[in-house]
Structures are given as structure tokens and as C-alpha cells.
Specification:
The protein is mainly α. It has 3 domains: 45 residues; 336 residues, Na+/H+ antiporter like fold (Up-down Bundle); 142 residues, 3-Layer(aba) Sandwich (Rossmann fold), CATH 3.40.50. Helices cover 71% and strands 5% of the residues. Helix 14 packs across helix 17.
């Protein structure tokens, strides 16, 4: 017991000292945790049992991370992200998996089964690191953040068939068809239990819990929900994190979403810290020394190939800068690859040396990731410059007074602009999607500007304080909240009109000084009632 306490004290001390030092240079805490694990492993003799215990504990860092991500993505949100998840994500996993499989088999002479396992494991990226850094930088709802999250969600789903693939390769008893059918049935059962049944149960459960008027009981109930959902998924052969993600999506449909998200963040970050410490513990300095050049060569090649593959197809779907940033954000290999390598090694699909080389390559790619993400804008500027032929006109304003600001140039923004133009009203459109800006300028729209209305400096530049009205006509709930907060910080009396889709979005901004909240669901309901009352029966 004293030995365990000594290790715990030493680990926390090392972590604190390293992270305080690194933060002075704006280096993410992820790196500090990884180095803490490496140093602690060299100082203390961890037994196999202790390492396994820490690994299981650390896994719940990812579980709580995926739960909080699930809170961000309700079923409605997932429907709006189907392209990012099921098109971009599927293309990334399949293209990268096949390319790495081909290289592993033909250039490194690995058996086909081993090459397939390694190839598709390398296709995965680090959910834990990417989402943590994106959250810290408030970039998770940016253009490239949305693409990255969509691909990461698909990758987490793809882990299931990858683990199933290892079972197929090493199974002597079950046929492939039996394994596939049992997995499909299990997936349906898990989804029914966690979403449909949970959806009807969870809100009543939290209503009952919150009646105790105790924050600690409420937090305990949240943890119970997360862990129970994870265990249900694991019992049916899926990952803990998938169960937590579905649980988060279920709660995202309830009124408790924001409270749970706020209460859980500190606990999640502590467990994520433990996860990164265990990653550092897997670094074997002797392997790095022995195969140093091989590992560095693989590291460079793998990250470059992944980035090139992603950029090659993403550029056909999104603007080039978004494609570059998304590719840079996901060019590393993720933590689930380590689990796949461990399972493949234990089943004899890869050798000990190959396993260690892969582990070192993966860990180093994860170490590099925060530095890439923190400098992603600068790197993107070096690698690619957006054309400015059309956009030069849209970047600068000439100064406005008594104007209407339209935030967003979607279908509603376009109609608003058309109506204001017909009435000879002075208006400006703020739109951050470059393709929409270019298209509008080509079609003769002279009042559109390439700008992100969620940035306070942009609103100040377009003289929001002296505007007649600000109309927020975008569909991203988090961006709506951020824009409204920024408007409110200038002057509480600014005439702000915000379009929301439902009561949940209206609830999220009700504490701000919004003059008019237009709920599209209520408007449609009122119109339908009016039309019904106008009907006359013969």
C-alpha cells in the first residue's frame, strides 16, 4: 500500500512540475502527461498487474470524453452530420486502410492477414488527443473541427469490425457468417437498450435524482449512467466508448444536457490525464534506440500518407483550407490502434518486434499531434493559400451606419438579402464559408463579407453598436450562442433577432438580452393552426 501511495505522489508531483513548466511555453498538458508516464516508468518497477489496472482506469478517460462528445451530437445533429460521419469517415478509413495494407504486404513482406490488421489500425486517429485540443482551442465547431469530429466518430464505429476481423482471422470454430450475424444482432440490441429504452427512462431518472437537490448525488447519477452504458456495450462485444457515446446522444435530447456537460468536464479531464500517463508508460527507450531510424521513417511516412489521402478526397467536398486543416488534425495514429496491435500480438498475428515498433510509432505520432494542432493555421498558410481574386472585395468593409447585419448566408440569409435589396435597405452579410462568399460575389451580391460573426472583433469592425438590427440566421446552436454573447457584450439594447429550430435552442440563449427569438417550430405550428381554422366545411 505504501508503495502504491509513493508512486501516486511521485506521479502527481512529476506531472505538476512538468505541466507548469510546459505551460509557460504554451505546450499542451497532453505532452506533460505522456512524459510523466515515461519518467515514472523508468523510476518505478511497475508489475504487469499494476499496468493493467492503470490501463483499465485510463480507458474511462476516453469513455467520459466520448460521453461528452455524445452530448454535443443529438440524433438531430447526427442527421445533419451524416456526410461528415458516413461519407468523409468511410472514405478515410477505407482508403487509408487499403493503402497501408498494400504497403505492409508488398514492401514489408508481411502476411496478408497481418498486413490487413496493421493497415486498418494505422487508418485510425487519436480521438482522445484531437478532441481534447479542439475543445481547449474552442475549435470543435469550426469548419475543420466538424469534419474531424465526423471522421473520428466513424473511426470509433470502425473499431468494432476491426476487432471482429481479428476474431475471424484467428477463429477455428465460428464461421464468418455466424460472427457477422451475431455482431449485427448485438449492435441492434445495444442501440435499442441504450437509446430507445434509455430515452424514455433517463429523463424520469434524472428528474427523480435532481429532486434530492444535491450536486454530488446528481454527479454520481451521471457517472452511473456513463459507466452502466459502457458496460452494456462491452457485454455485447463493443467498446466501452461506443456505449458512452450513445448514452451522451440520448441525454443530448433532454433538458439536463448542459448541466451534465459542465459538471463532468473536470472529472473527464483527470481521467484523460491518467490515460496519457499510461501512453507514456508504453514508450520503451531501448526499442527507440534499437529501431530509431526505422521508427522515424515510419512516423514520417505514415503521417504524410494519411494527410495526402484525406486531403485528396476532402478537397472535392469542402474548401481547400478546411481539407488541409482536417488532414493535419487527423494525420496521427490513435489509441485504439494500440488496442488492436495488442490483440493481434496476443493472437500471434504480428511478432513482438513489429508490435513494439508500431507502438513507438503510434505514441510518437500522438506526441506530435498537439504541436500540429496548436500551429495548424500557420502550417495551413504555408501549405496552401486560398485564391483572393474574388475575395479581396469581400474582406474589407467601407464602414456602415444604420445598417442591418445578417449573420449567415444559408437559405434564410439569401432570402433576407433579396427582400432587403428590393426595399433598398442597407445591409451586410457576414459569412465564414469561402465557397458561399465566392458564389455570392459571382452572382452579383456586393454586400457579402468573408467574416466569422462569432468573433467579437468582426462584429466591432462592422459597427454592430450602430446597426439597426442583427439577424442571426445560422443553424449551429453553439455558434448562435457565441454570436449572441458577443453582441450582448457590446450593448444590451442592440436589436437582435435570432432564428432557432426548436425550444431547446431557444432555451440555450434565453439568459441573454435577445430582443426577438423566432422559433421556426412555433411559427410553422401557428401557420398550420391558422390554415386549419380558415378551412370551411361544405
Amino acid at each position: 500500500m505504501e508503495h502504491i501511495l509513493l508512486i501516486l505522489i511521485a506521479t502527481i508531483t512529476i506531472s505538476t512540475i512538468i505541466n507548469v513548466f510546459l505551460k509557460k511555453f504554451d505546450i499542451p498538458t497532453v505532452i506533460g502527461y505522456i512524459f510523466t508516464g515515461l519518467i515514472t516508468m523508468q523510476i518505478f518497477d511497475f508489475g504487469l498487474h499494476s499496468q493493467e489496472t492503470l490501463s483499465h482506469l485510463a480507458e474511462f478517460g476516453i469513455v467520459f470524453l466520448m460521453f461528452t462528445i455524445g452530448l454535443e451530437f443529438s440524433i438531430g445533429h447526427m442527421k445533419s452530420m451524416k456526410r461528415e460521419v458516413f461519407v468523409y469517415g468511410a472514405l478515410q478509413v477505407l482508403l487509408s486502410g487499403f493503402v497501408f495494407t498494400f504497403i505492409s504486404h508488398h514492401f514489408f513482406n508481411l502476411e496478408v492477414k497481418s498486413a490487413i490488421v496493421i493497415g486498418f489500425a494505422l487508418a485510425l486517429s487519436s480521438t482522445a488527443i484531437v478532441l481534447k485540443v479542439l475543445n481547449e482551442k474552442n475549435q470543435i465547431h469550426s469548419g475543420y473541427g466538424r469534419v474531424a469530429v465526423g471522421i473520428l466518430i466513424f473511426q470509433d464505429l470502425a473499431v468494432i469490425p476491426m476487432l471482429l476481423m481479428i476474431s475471424i482471422f484467428t477463429s477455428d470454430n465460428s464461421s464468418v457468417s455466424e460472427l457477422l450475424i451475431s455482431t449485427l444482432v448485438s449492435a441492434i440490441v445495444v442501440f435499442l437498450i441504450l437509446f430507445f429504452i434509455g430515452k424514455f427512462f433517463i429523463e424520469s431518472f434524472f428528474d427523480w435524482v435532481i429532486s434530492s437537490n444535491s450536486e454530488e448525488i446528481f454527479l454520481g447519477a451521471v457517472m452511473l449512467t456513463v459507466i452502466a452504458s459502457s458496460v452494456v456495450a462491452e457485454l455485447f462485444g463493443f467498446s466501452f466508448s461506443l456505449g458512452a457515446f450513445i448514452a451522451g446522444m440520448t441525454i443530448a435530447e433532454t433538458k439536463f444536457r448542459y448541466k451534465i456537460e459542465a459538471d463532468l468536464v473536470p472529472f473527464r479531464d483527470i481521467l484523460l490525464g491518467v490515460f496519457f500517463v499510461t501512453i507514456g508508460m508504453q514508450i520503451d527507450p531501448t526499442i527507440v534506440i534499437k529501431y530509431g531510424f526505422v521508427i522515424l521513417g515510419l512516423l514520417f511516412a505514415i503521417m504524410l500518407i494519411k494527410a495526402v489521402i484525406m486531403f485528396s478526397y476532402l478537397r472535392y467536398f469542402v474548401q481547400n483550407r478546411t481539407a488541409i486543416k482536417s488532414s493535419l488534425a487527423l494525420m496521427q495514429v490513435g489509441e485504439f490502434a494500440l488496442a488492436i496491435f495488442a490483440l493481434a500480438f496476443s493472437n500471434g498475428l504480428i511478432s513482438s518486434d513489429v508490435n513494439q515498433i508500431m507502438i513507438m510509432t503510434v505514441v510518437l505520432s500522438m506526441v506530435l499531434t498537439p504541436f500540429i494542432l496548436n500551429n495548424i493555421k500557420s502550417i495551413a498558410n504555408i501549405m496552401f493559400k486560398e485564391p483572393t481574386k474574388l475575395r479581396d472585395r469581400a474582406i474589407k468593409s467601407t464602414g456602415y451606419q444604420n445598417h442591418i447585419i445578417i449573420c449567415g448566408y444559408g437559405p434564410i440569409g439569401k432570402r433576407l438579402a433579396k427582400k432587403f435589396k428590393e426595399k433598398n435597405l442597407l445591409y451586410v452579410i457576414l459569412e465564414h464559408d469561402i465557397k458561399l462568399v465566392d458564389s455570392a460575389i459571382e452572382n452579383g451580391e456586393k454586400s457579402i463579407f468573408l467574416a466569422n460573426a462569432a468573433q467579437k472583433s468582426v462584429l466591432e469592425h462592422f459597427n454592430v453598436k450602430n446597426s439597426l438590427a442583427v439577424i442571426v440566421a445560422i443553424s449551429n446552436e453553439h455558434q448562435i450562442r457565441l454570436i449572441c454573447e458577443n453582441i450582448n457584450s457590446f450593448d444590451a439594447n442592440i436589436n437582435t433577432i435570432v432564428k432557432v429550430k426548436n425550444d431547446s435552442e431557444a432555451e440555450s440563449i434565453k439568459d441573454l438580452n435577445i430582443k426577438h427569438i423566432v422559433n421556426s417550430r412555433d411559427i410553422i405550428t401557428n401557420i398550420l393552426v391558422q390554415k386549419a381554422l380558415e378551412c370551411k366545411l361544405d
